[in-house]
Design goal:
alpha/beta, Rossmann fold, 35% helix, binds adenosine-5'-diphosphate, binds magnesium ion
Length: 255
């Protein structure tokens, strides 16, 4: 459903992603691992279509349509939603108003907020003075209102204390199961997700089908997410860097 084909991306005059390819299947949860600075957030921002990330080559295909050059609002309309790692403060924008707009007036911000224990935040400016956990809950609230079919979650558990992680994990699970409001999707195609996780804690709450490991701006390996996490915990990212080097050598030899 989402196909990333040989993507090379530049930001701030630097090439950050190099010839990166991966797929996220409809109805499946895919997890992305990788050390700090490997380009995970850049990949998600590029898929969502944020300005500042310039695609030098390669394509992003959603349900057979090339969306590489579409603006962010068109991608959102087609059913992509994102939880950012560090969303900005929106001074002068009340959370209630944002949720109303995101839900196109069809959702009840009060009821959604109550369920997420966010009622007291509805009249506050989005993210201004929110704690780490409150920011994540606010992001979930906005995603619930939008109801996307492809969820891009950038480290949903980062900045959240140990006790709140369980509640957040359950909410993310519900979000993946919950209703979606995207037009033009085939009836049977369920929600899909691409989740970046540093710690792997989110895997205790969501069922992930496939995992990718990124190193130095490209995919180094893929496989069963739990097995990958086990390897990373045991050996760090060295094995993946080795695996990528072997692959590069192989490509060089073939060339
Ligand atoms: N706008 C930008 N200008 C210059 N460098 C950037 C920009 N955005 C990201 N980078 C750099 O790209 C690399 C990958 O960043 P990022 O995608 O945030 O990694 P990750 O999410 O895997 O930690 C980092 O070295 C970061 O500093
Ligand atoms: Mg990141």
């Amino acid at each position: 459903m989402l196909e990333i084909e040989n993507l090379t991306v530049e930001a701030g005059g630097r090439e950050i992603l190099h010839d990166l390819s991966l797929n996220v299947m409809s109805g499946y949860t895919t997890v992305l691992f990788g050390p700090n600075g490997s380009g995970k957030s850049t990949l998600l921002m590029t898929i969502m279509g944020f300005s500042g990330f310039k695609v030098k080559s390669g394509r992003i295909i959603l349900n057979g349509e090339d969306i590489t050059d579409l603006p962010v609002n068109e991608r959102a309309k087609r059913g992509i939603g994102m939880m950012m790692q560090r969303p900005p403060n929106l001074i002068g924008v009340r959370l209630k108003d944002l949720v109303q707009v995101t839900g196109k007036g069809k959702v009840d911000p009060v009821a959604l907020a109550e369920d997420l224990n966010m009622s007291a935040f509805l009249d506050r400016d989005v993210n201004v003075g929110f704690s780490g956990g409150e920011i994540k809950r606010s992001e979930i609230l906005q995603l619930e209102a939008q109801g996307p079919c492809l969820l891009l979650l950038d480290e949903p558990e980062s900045g959240v204390d140990l006790v709140s992680i369980e509640k957040l994990g359950v909410k993310v699970h519900e979000l993946l199961q919950g209703p979606s409001h995207c037009a033009g999707w085939r009836q049977r195609s369920g929600k899909a997700a691409l989740i970046i996780t540093h710690t792997g804690q989110i895997l205790d709450y969501v069922e992930a089908d496939r995992g990718y490991v990124m190193c130095n701006g490209t995919v180094a390996c893929s496989g069963n997410p739990r097995e990958l996490l086990g390897e990373i915990r045991k050996m760090g990212y060295n094995e993946c860097i080795r695996c990528k080097m072997n692959r590069s050598n192989l490509i060089r030899e073939i060339a």
